[in-house]
């Protein structure tokens, strides 16, 4: 199939899922066209069957807001015609599903029917999409999609609760290419980060308020009082500055490393002992899955789709959002003796197997095939 993939190219789960999906589909013989405003961060290699088409939005002083969805829908029309794309897969409803619908309508004028699959990722539903300013357009474009998927059962339920949805929503979870996280421990540069007796705790995100970054600092503060430890904070975003301030206030700056964005999270996870994800909302928690794939147990909140990923008492522990004391206690429980830690590491890896890329990507292929079949009827 010739598949057009629309996504956000930045650091963030939906862009990562879209990119990894495209790359895997290309390995399975499909022709992939990424259509977005920048080359996706995890898309390092373009090739014979992996292409990237940039959406340009020219600055025009008359516009207070530059019309990205207009430029995107025009680009989709051009690319579908030029590359004879069979199907579009848009990740994140806003504004991608809306732009795909417009492209579909424009192409119909030329006698071309391009179906589109929309994948809902989380904040497009739970935070932004359900805002009254966007809700009618989001509802409309979900209902007009030829197929809709959500990345967890929890997100499917949230979507059905928050919007008036007429379409069926299939659950296709996030997935992981286990080979990419299968480092031999001797490859790790652990010694550069911590002394032998120190445990390494890690968090990776885009540091938005929904990630409850300050909870992470507070949990770490509690843990390091009884267990020698370092905290690796990977990512950029609005909560970084307040987090650095809190570290200064608590006197732990020498124990906390702020990395900024990184393309080498597999290397960082390789030397990590524990991952923290205390989010306020999380439709799935891809970063937790990436941690588990590296054999890193997870202390998380029990919100949204996280319980579908992190198994209580097996791959880690889950607590109510904001329960810093319980999360700290559970972190110490895992870290305090080597046997327990090793068991949790093993369990985390086993849990990640459930989301192996080879099990999930065929589900998307089946959805494309079914969608194309239905369109021909
Ligand atoms: O939460 C983020 O950091 C980014 C966000 C996105 O839209 O890119 O991630 C969402 O999609 C991921 C991939 O499906 C999910 O694993 C994340 O849980 C989800 N984030 C939230 O729901 C907050």
According to CATH, the fold-level topology of the largest domain is Rossmann fold
CATH superfamily of the largest domain: Glycogen Phosphorylase B
> How many angstroms does the end-to-end distance come to?
18 Å
Tell me, what's the shape? elongated
Strand order of the largest sheet: 3-2-1-4-5-6-7
CATH class of the largest domain: Alpha Beta
Structural class: alpha/beta
Give a count of the beta strands, DSSP E runs of length 2 or more.
13
The helix count comes to 14
Q: What radius of gyration results from the CA coordinates?
A: 21 Å
CATH architecture of the largest domain: 3-Layer(aba) Sandwich
Question: What small molecules accompany the polymer chains?
Answer: ligand GMT
InterPro entries: Glyco_trans_1, Glyco_trans_4-like_N, Glycosyltransferase_grp1, Thiol_BshA
GO molecular function: glycosyltransferase activity
Domain Glycosyltransferase subfamily 4-like N-terminal: 11-179
Domain Glycosyl transferase family: 195-350
Structural write-up:
Pfam families: Glyco_transf_4 (PF13439), Glycos_transf_1 (PF00534). InterPro entries: Glyco_trans_1, Glyco_trans_4-like_N, Glycosyltransferase_grp1, Thiol_BshA. One of its GO terms (molecular function) is glycosyltransferase activity. Residues 195-350 form the Glycosyl transferase family domain. This protein is an alpha/beta fold. It folds into two domains: 2-175 and 357-376, Rossmann fold; 178-353, Glycogen Phosphorylase B (Rossmann fold), CATH 3.40.50.2000. The protein contains 14 helices and 13 strands. α2 packs across α3 (93-109) and α8 (213-226) packs across α12. The longest helix is centred in the last third of the chain and has 20 residues, at 357-376. The radius of gyration is 21 Å and the shape is elongated. The two termini are 18 Å apart. The structure holds ligand GMT.
